[in-house]
User: What shape does this take?
Amino acid sequence: MSEATIHDDHHDHHDHKPTGIGRWLFSTNHKDIGTMYLIFALVMLFLGGASAMVLRMELFMPGIQIVDPDTYNNLLTNHALIMVFGMVMPAGAGMANWMIPMMIGAPDMALPRLNNLSFWLLPMAGTMLILSMVVSYFPGTGTPVNTGWTLYPPLSVQSGMGMDFLIFTIHILGISSILAAINIVTTIVNMRAPGMTWFKLPLFVWSWLFTGLLLIMIMPVLAGGVTMLLFDRHFGTSFFDAAGGGDPVLFQHLFWFFGHPEVYVLLLPSIGVLGLIIPTFSRKPLFAYKPLVWFMAALTALGMVVWAHHQYTIGMSLNATTYFMIGTILISIPVGMMLMSFIFTMWRGAMTFETPMLFGIAIILMFSFAGVTGVMLAVVPADLQYHDSYFVVAHFHYALIPGSVFGLYAAVFYWLPKWTGHMYNETHGKIFFWWTTLSFNLTFFPQHFSGLAGMPRRIVDYSPQFADFNYLSSVGGMLFGLSHLLFLYIIIKTVKGGEKAPANPWEGSMIGTTGLEWTLSSPPPFHSFSTPPSVK
Amino acid sequence: MTTNETYFIPEPSRWPIISASGVFVLLFGFILFINDVGAGSMIMTAGFLMITYIFFGWFGTVIDENLKGNYGSQVSTSFRQGMFWFITSEVFFFLTFFGCLYYFRTIAIPYLGGEGQLGSSNLLWDGFTAHWPLINLPDATNYSPPKEAMGAGGIPLWNTIILLSSGATLTWAHWGLKKESKNQLVLGLIMTVVLGLIFFALQAYEYYHAYTAMGLKLTSGIYGSTFYMLTGFHGLHVTIGTIMLIVITIRSMKDHFTEENHFAFEAVAWYWHFVDVVWIGLYFFVYWL
Amino acid sequence: MSELKQIFKRGLLLIASTLFSIPAFAVREYNLPEPASTITREIYDLHMLTATVATIIMIIVTGIIVYALIKFRKSTGYQADQNFNHTWFGRWSWALVPAIVLGIDFSVAGSAVKTLGNIESHDPAAVTVKVTGSQWKWTYDYMEDGVKIVSNLNKDIPSTDDLYLRDVDNRLVLPINQRIRFLHTATDVLHAWWVPAIAYKKDSIPGYINETWTMIDKEGVYRGQCAENCGTGHAYMPIVVEAMSEANYAEWMNEQKLAMVAAVAESSADKTWPLAELMERGEKLYNTNCAGCHMPTGTGLPGVFPALKGSAVALGDLAKHNEVVLKGVAGTAMAAWASQLNDLELAAIITYERNAWGNDTGDAVQPADIKAAR
Ligand code: HEA
Ligand code: HEA
Ligand code: CUA
Ligand SMILES: [Cu+2]
Assistant: This one.
C-alpha cells in the first residue's frame, strides 16, 4: 500500500490530482470533500459562537443591553440551528468522509458525485439561513423569526417572511443530510475491503452506521413537519389551528420525533471517536467492544420512541406520559454501557495524556453529568418544574458541548497529524484543553442554579435575582469564546507546517483494532486504496 | 465487497454544484413567489429549468458511463443500496402524514369534542361535536367547510385497480427483461406508463370535482388539509414515477438494459411499487375508513 | 497617542468596576423555591431524590476515573493488562452493569409514578380558575363567581430592583387550604403559566384546555413567569399570586363582584361621555392593554407593530377602526378585543387613539357606538 506514495509521480493515471479551483468545486474525492465539510463547520462554529456571544452579552446583567427582544430571539434561533445543523453535523460528516473509506479500505465513498452534492447543498442552506435573518430588516416583511429553533406554531405562523426562508433552509439541510447518510451507510455496507468483517470495524464506523440510519429515518419527518407549517402559513390549511380541527401540539410531536433522535445523531460520532482515542492512549483494546455495538443499536432503536419527553407539559394522557418517562429513563442503560466501556478500557491500561486523551477523560466526566441531569429531566413531575427553564439549557449544553463538540475537538487533535502530515504543538493543545474545559464549566454550571431558581429560557431580560449566576455565565462564555481563537491558531499552524508526522503517530493506535487508516502515509495519497487491501 | 476489480471513481464533475445552486434558485424564487414579491415566479422558473437541465446532464453522464462498461458489480450494488435507502426515507416522509391523520382522528378532534382524560377543551367550542370526516368545524370563520366527504367507491376504487394493474404490468415487463424478450419489456412498460397517465387524469378530475361540486378545498379545515396533503404528495410521486418510467421505456427501446445490468430499470420499478403501496395505504385510511 | 492611552485606561476602569460591582448581588436562590403547596412539596421531594441519586452516580464515576488516572499511568511504569477483557468481569460486565443501572432506573421511576398519579388526579376542586395567556398578559376567570382579572406587567420598576419583571398590576388572589383547579388556555400562541412555589407548569394552548391543580398551604405572595416562548414580550409576562386566608378571600371576592356590577352599570348607562373624560380613561386603558405593542407614544415597532400615530385606520373611517379593534386581524398578533373589554372601555381606548399623539379627529366614541359595532 505504501508503494502508492513512494512512486507517487509515475503512478498510473488514477493518482493524478486535479488542480485549481475545480479540484474543490467539482470534487469527487472523499478527502477533499471531507476537508470542505470541516472548513464549513469551522466557519459555522464561529458564526454560531458569535451569536452566542451576543446572547451572553445581552444577558450580562438585567435590563436591555444591546439587542431588542425580537433580534435576541432571532439570534437564539440561528445560534441553535447553525451550531446543530451547520457545525456539529457537517463536522461529523466531514470526519466520516475523511476517515471511513480509509478505515474500511475503500477507494472512496460509494457515490462520489452524490457526496459532493450533499456538501454543496450546505453553503446554499447557510445562505438561505442568513437571508432569513436579513430579510426582516426590509419593511413589510413582518416579525423576525423569534421562535427558537423548535419553531413551534402558532408563533411560527405569526412570524414574517424570514420564517419561509428558514423553512426552506431546513429543507435543503434535510436533503443534504439524507443524501450524506445514504452515501455513508452504503459505503459501510458495500465498500469494506475483503476480510473487513462487521466486528472488525472500528467503533467510529459503527457509530456512523447508526447515525446514518437515524438520519434516513428522522430527517423526512422534520421536512414533512415544516412543509405543513408552510402550508398553514400560505395555503390556508389548518394543521396547527384548533379552529379548523387542527392542533398546534402536533407540530411538537413531529419536531421531537426528529429532535430527540437528532441528539443521538450529534452524540454518536463523538462516541465513535472516543472508542478509538481511549484505547489508543490506554494502550489496551476497547473493553466490551461487541456489547457496545449492540447497545448502540439499542440506543438507536430506543432513541426513536421516546420523543415526547420534550413535551411533558402539553397535557398528554397519564398512560402516554408514564410510557415516555420510563422509556427515557431506560436510555441510561445503553449510554451507561458506553461510558462503562470507556472507563474500563482505561482501567489497568497504561495511560498517557496527550490532548485527545485529556478531552476523552473530560468528556466521560462531563457527559455523565449531562446524562444524569437528563435523567432528572426525564422524571415527569420534576420536569414540570424544570421544563423551559435554564436547567434545561444547562443540561443540553453539557450534553452538546462535551458530548459532541469536545468529541470533535478530540478527533481534530487525534487526526490532524494524519490529515496534514504535521504534528500539532502539544503544549498549545494542552493549554487549549484546560482553557476550554474550565471556561465551559464556568459558563454552563451556574445555569443549573438559575434554572432551578426559576429563570425561564429564551428571555431577553430578567430580574436581578438571577443576576449573579448570569454574570458568571457571561464571563465564562466570553472566556470560552476566546479560547476558540487559540483553536483556530493551532489548526492553521499545523496545516502550514510543524514537525513531520509519521504514518502512525500514536503508539497505541493499532492495539486491538483493525482500522486501516494508520497503514497509509500521513497525509495519505490522493486516492486511498486503488486496489482493495485485504485484512487478515 | 468480495470482488477484486477496480471501483469506478468518477472524474471531477460539475453537476453536483450546479444542482445545489439550482435547488437554491428554485426555492428562493418560490419564497418570493408565495410572498408576492417581485420576480419570484421568474426566478422559480429559472431554477426549475436548471434542475431539469441537470437531470438530463447528470443522468446522461451516468448512462454514458454505464454503457461504456465502467461500472462493475460493486458499483451497481452501491446504486441499488443507495436507492433502497432513498426509498426508506420516502417511506418515513409518508409515514409522517399518515401519522398526522391518525393523530387528528384519534387524539386532537376527540379532545376538541370534549373527550379524553382532560376533556375540558370543549368549553371553548360551544356546540362542537367530534365526527370524522370533519364537516362541522369548531370555528369556520377563516375556513370553508366541505359540503360532503369523499366516498370510497367510484374514482378512488378505479384508481386502486389501475395502480395495482400497473404494478402487475411492470412486473410482467421485468420478466420480459429477464427472458430477454424486448417486445414484452417495451410493451409492459408502455402499458404501465399508460396506466400511470390514466391514474393521473382521474386524480385530476377528482380534485376538480372536489373543489367545485363538493366544496372540499385545501382551506376546508383539517379534513381537506389532510386529504390534499396525502393525496397531493402521492400524486407528485406518481408524476415523478411516470416520468422515470417514460425514460426507461425509451432506454429499453434503445436496448440499454441487459439481463445483468439494468439498475435503472430496477430502481424505477422499486419506486413505482413503493408509490403503489402508498396508494393502498391511502385508499384504506383516507377514503375508506 | 495619549488619547488612545486615555481610552484604554477608561476601558480598563469600566471593566474592572463592573467586574467588582456585579457580584455584590448575593446569591439568594440556587434551588427550587421553598414549596408552599401540597403538590409542589411532593415534587420538591422527588427532585431532591433524583438530584441525590445523580450526585451519588457522579461521585462513583468520578471516583473510579480518578483512581484509574492515578494508578494506571504509563509514566509510573504501569504495564497495560492485555488480558483484562478476558477476565470474568470483561465477559459479564455487559449484563452486570445494565442490571445495576436498571435497578436504579426502576427505583427512580417508581417514586415518580406515584407523584405523577397525584398530579393527574381529578378530584373536585373548590375554586376553578381559567387562566388565559395572551400576548402579553394573563387573564383569570373565576369560573364559579364570574369574576375576571386581567394582569399586566408592572412597568414602573427599575431594573435594579428585585421585583423588576416580577410584578404585575393586578394579582391573582387565591384562598389557602382549598383545592384549586386551573384551566389553561391561550388566545394567540403558546404560553405556560408557572409559579414554582405553588404550581407546576402546563402549556396554554390556543383552542385547547389543559388542567392543573394545587392546594396552597401558606399565606403569602408567590411569583413566576411565562415559561413558553410567546414572541417579543415573552420576558415581560410575570405572574403574581397572592394567597390569603379563606375569610379574607371571601371578602376580596365580594369586593370584586361589587366592582364588576358597577362597571357594567357604568358601561351600559345611557349617557353621552365627554371627550376629556374618555381621553383620560382611554389613556390608562391604552397603556395597560395596547402600549405593549403599539408603544405608549403610538409609534409601534417599525416592521413589527404598526404605528397608530398618523395611521390611516386611526385617522380614517370609524367603522373600520372599530372593526380592527373588536375583531382583531387574523393571522397577526393583533387580537380581537370584543370579549376582553366592555363597551365603555373600548370606546375610551378608541377615542384616545383617535385623539392622542397629534391624531386630531375630535371623535368622542360612545359606548353605544361600540355596542352597535359588535
Ligand atoms: C448531544 C445531545 C444530547 C444528549 C446525548 C442528551 C441525552 C439525554 N437527554 Fe437531553 N436534551 C438535549 C440534548 C441531549 N440530550 C437538548 C438539545 C435538549 C433541549 C432541546 C430544546 O428544548 O431546545 C434536551 C432536553 C432534554 C429533555 C427535555 C427537557 C425539557 O425541555 O423539559 C429531557 C427530558 O427527559 C432530556 C433527557 C435526556 C436523557 C434521559 C438523555 C440520555 O441519553 C442520557 C443518558 C446518559 C446517562 C444517564 C449518563 C451515563 C450513565 C451512567 C453513568 C449510568 C448510571 C446512570 C443512571 C442510573 C441514571 N433531554
Ligand atoms: C451544538 C450545539 C451548541 C453549541 C456548541 C452551543 C454553544 C454555546 N451556546 Fe448554545 N444553544 C444550543 C446549542 C448549542 N450552543 C441550542 C440548541 C440552544 C437552544 C435554542 C433555543 O432555545 O431555541 C442554545 C441556547 C443557548 C442559550 C440560551 C439562550 C436562551 O434560552 O435565552 C445560551 C445562553 O447562554 C447559549 C450559550 C452558548 C454559548 C456561550 C456557547 C459557546 O459554547 C459558544 C462558544 C464558541 C465560540 C464563541 C466560538 C466563536 C469565537 C469567536 C467568535 C471569537 C470571538 C470571541 C469573543 C467575542 C469573546 N446557547
Ligand atoms: Cu407568554 Cu411567554
Ligand atoms: Cu430528547
